[in-house]
Amino acid sequence: MMTVSCDKIFGEDLTDLIFDYGVIEVPDKALFIGNSLLLGNGTFGMNATDSLHDYHALIQARFLAANPAYTDVKLSGIAFEGCENHDQQLNWLENTLRPQLSADLDLVVIQIGDNVNTSKRRSAFEQGAKELIATIREASPNAHVVWLYGWYVSSNVTKSIKNACKQYTVNLIAINDIHETENESSIATVVTRTAPTSQALKYTRYTVLPDGRLQIDFAVEGKIYTAAVRATSYDDNPGAKTLTWQGYETITTDWHVASHPGNSGFAQIARHFFEMVNITWE
């Protein structure tokens, strides 16, 4: 198993959490439980440029190449991150998670914790992280369980996840060392959605390019950005200098969205996954 320098992970030694399970086979069936990095763009991770470039798609593609029978399901865990007490957690575990678990699951990837960002959430999560893994172990006893954390890191959440992973012998794969500027998305990134949508954007100017795309100049915090999108239709409100278009492409204009992984960040997350999980490809 290839390991990552521990002094780069959460700023402390995690040697006791890098468990060697031996070699596992390429899975037949997997479950991914995640937050915006898994489903923030609707059906794929925020802010990959399309559905083929988030960490899930990259992992899935490699598994499919080795095992064409491979299947997986993506489940949003944002509601679990938002739980503030034990009753809320039990409701999610029993009514949302448990229906997705089965004895034939080979792999469960947990990628939550980033949004456990209030005192009540953090307090509940200390025990909730353990109960999450315990529920998986009970309903899917043959599954290899991996926890990916965290693009946005909290020391309290880190401790809760570490303790849960240590108690239940779960691989913890830290990804905070990847969160560097070059691995983030950016303002003006164009995202191709999997379903038609619309976007309204206040512009400084726009033009229709020879290939039919709309090239739009817009300001964010006083800085001008330019992006070009393909649209099936559009409407201009010149008085408000607002352009509204319909199609599959949208433009990133929000700094929080832009702080999510870009394609390079998602590629690094997938690379970390395969470095830390010892899989046989034969």
TrEMBL record:
SUPFAM superfamilies linked: SGNH hydrolase
- Note the InterPro entries from the entry: SGNH_hydro_sf
Q: Which GO terms describe its molecular function?
A: hydrolase activity, acting on ester bonds
The cross-references to Gene3D superfamilies, in alphabetical order and at most eight, read: SGNH hydrolase
Recorded superkingdom? Bacteria
Protein name per the record: SGNH hydrolase-type esterase domain-containing protein
Q: Say which species the protein is native to.
A: Barnesiella viscericola DSM 18177
